[in-house]
Amino acid sequence: MDQHYLAPLFAPRSIVVFAGSSQPEEAATPQAAALLQALKAQRYKGQLQFVSTRTSGTLADLMQIKADLALIALPPAEVAAAIELAARMACQAVMVLSAGIDADQATAWHKQARREGLHLLGPNCLGFQRPALSLNAGTMGPLAEPGPLALVSQSGSLTAAMLDWAVRNGVTFSSVVSLGPHPGIGLAETLDFLANDPHTQSILIYMEGIRDARRFMSTLRSAANAKPVIVLKAGRRAAGRAAARTHSAAMVGDDEVFDAALRRAGAVRVKSYDEMFSAAKCLASRFRPAGKRLAVLTNGGGPGVLAADWANDIDLALGQLSPETAEALRAALPPTASLVDLVDLSEDAEPAHFATALQAANRDPGVDGLLMIYSPKPGADATAYARAVAGCKPGLSKPLLTCWMGDESVVEARQVLNDAHIPTYRTPESAVGAFGNLSSFYQNQTLLQQTPPPLSTLAKPDIEGARLVIEGVLAERRKVLTEMESKTLLSAFHIPVTETILARTAHEAMMIATQLGFPVALKIDSPDISHKSDVQGVALNITNGAGVRDTFHDMMERVKRLRPDARINGVTVQQMARTRSGREICIGVVTDDAFGPVIAFGAGGTMIELIDDRAMELPPLNQYLAHRLIERARVADTLGEWRGLRPVDLDAVERILLRVSEMVCELPQLREMDINPIIVDEDGAISVDARIVIDSGPHALGGRAGHYSHLPILPYPARLEQVWPLRGGGEYTVRPIHTDDAQMLQELVQSLSPESRYFRFVSSMTELPPPMLAKLTLIDYDREMALVAVYRERRAQENGEIVERERIIGVSRYITNPDQTSCEFSLVVADDFSGKGLGSRLMESIMDVARDRGLSEIIGLVLTNNGGMLRLMRSLGFTVKPYPDDPDFRLVTHPL
């Protein structure tokens, strides 16, 4: 588990090259010539060998050549033979450099590589660079300078352009990977490697499509939990779909779904090529903001105002100096300086003033980031100001961005800032936008940490009853539920709805209305009519029985004339919602092709498309996520005190969102839902109308079936919680790990004896580093599972008071192997709980989870001198045998 499975590809110790020759002028293809030139331009730190598929000699001779990685740049007809030879040479990874290969041919090579046990990057890619290894295994240009930023791109031309740009702008890279179309090793796999790569501190992604949303979200969440991730996605489209059948589908477009997914993953999206470059500069600076308060320091009022305006437009806050900081700073600045809102140093400011103001703002607790703007003035040396700012950098604890305005007079100054690895921009707006991206990363981290369960703590819904309604509709070969059926489904999940009764005659409608109480609303009930108002099938505020009778006849006649093909069940009667202070909102669900179900929230009523108010989130939701979803919609401004109306009951709205989340999680047949309008006031919320579309079978993501297979983010699996008796007395709980367990996990590791820590981590470390701690506690519950044993212990305080606290006393974990059929486990138990049956229980529990996941084998590496663990493995039926790669370990395996 120490070495990533893609290390032979991206961190090879030895490489074999198939290029037709070792000389560029004799290369087999243009890609081969470029590859050979790139490899020879610098000294690769590993072993490099050149082999031809037409080399004479026996197969035994070729098998004497051993390598981690094979680089193949041959004509398509020779690639299959080269892949076979690479496998004979014990290679673990292969990269195919080519162009114009169609999907069928690429698939054939991928299948061959899998049969041979090889990880294949390509074809149709430009290769990759690993500057720290002096390895330029591609055709994208000169090797980049080594640094902390990784770039992964699905576009070769953009990759080459960014590398060229980076040279002039001082951006350095840990890795550059060009994937191209039809990749074997894709975006998710590459991202997984970079998330674990110690050379990489920040990741930049350019992407055009997603193959497996579940795996993409899993690896993206893991990476963004450890290091900043910036994403530029091409293919943005106008919101909405032409085939939309509900208001909610019109509310949500593919691009907006992608935005919601990135927010939930803790990553940040940029919308343009320029923004991507700006973000690259910021990431290369290694600073991370802790908020969105940006202090603007300038020697020119106009540029400072432009920066402040743009900060307001993108929802940043202007970082203002505290009165104490401003008072102390004022004496050290020119008399004309202004410290109200902006830190305007005035045109009289000298380089020393820039440095003094920068240091003061950095110390102020009301500031999260710093932007220094320089406006040229006659006779001033722009480079001197840049040197003053660069000299401050070692002492700064907050992100620093700069904007040296102008052109010819500031070229040298910008170079000084680039050399100091300080991001510098040509306009105030670009600089502010770059800080906004980093600030969004900080905010999205809060969303990333949310691991809500599928069901809330509210009253348990009638899931079985809801499924019976769905099965009944599907049995009639229908997909659209009637209003009555839709409201029955909502009621099963305790979503408040107006009482609705179906009337088949005018006389029935009149009697029902009289019993419900006037005024009432009449609505046509038909499985073939999506929007009742389009056929004038809605009548409101009917105040007496005669009006109900006449409206019934008129509505039936009118609808039959406008839609003679529609099946009409009758007319529903419901009492009008009695509120003068109610606001109309809409909650909907749509199914995105890539990410599955999405929950939408916004303004409701008949003008929903025109108002175009929408916010959305991926399920599952908890109260925090529901609250943030409401805040992002424009209608949120009307839900507080508004035009003399009292604030609405926001808790009621949040409860409906949580209930909708439950529906989405538990009913995989749900495709679209439109609860519109929901009338909400200070006394609560009630759903007036609803429309639901279903389909048979779940919308499985990534081709995997099973519980919650339709969700891109798995909910916290609370169903796995179990309470077990402890040998010797007491009890403990075995449950899945979550992000709040970080401190308890750290305490467990710190409490272990040096021997126990070494047995688990094969390291002498005394505590988990923060990135590793984050990785171990934020998991996706799909490709990885960790179960913790939690013991509630009682301790006496110094004053004699007895307090209870939870403590993690053991952890078992598995990670799915790349073959997707087996997994590797780890186990650790607190020293003072050894011998109490805890290890056996944790192993049996994690094996049960792996078995339910559909895995066929669980394996592990145990140190040869770890006798206690080896005895436990044998007692559980594991096979123990030598590990061929390292005699210090034993390989233990068990079929599931």
Report on this structure.
By secondary structure, the protein is of the alpha/beta class. Among the domains are: 288-422, Rossmann fold (3-Layer(aba) Sandwich), CATH 3.40.50; 718-895, Gcn5-related N-acetyltransferase (GNAT) (Aminopeptidase, 3-Layer(aba) Sandwich), CATH 3.40.630. Helix content is 36%, strand content 23%. The protein is built from 29 helices and 36 strands. It has an eight-stranded mixed beta sheet, sandwiched between helices. Strands 7-6-9-8-10-11-12 form a seven-stranded mixed beta sheet, with helices on both faces. Strand 23 and strand 24 form a beta hairpin. Helix 8 (213-226) packs antiparallel against helix 27 (770-777), helix 11 (273-284) crosses helix 17 and helix 14 runs parallel beside helix 15. Mean pLDDT is 88; it is low at 238-251.
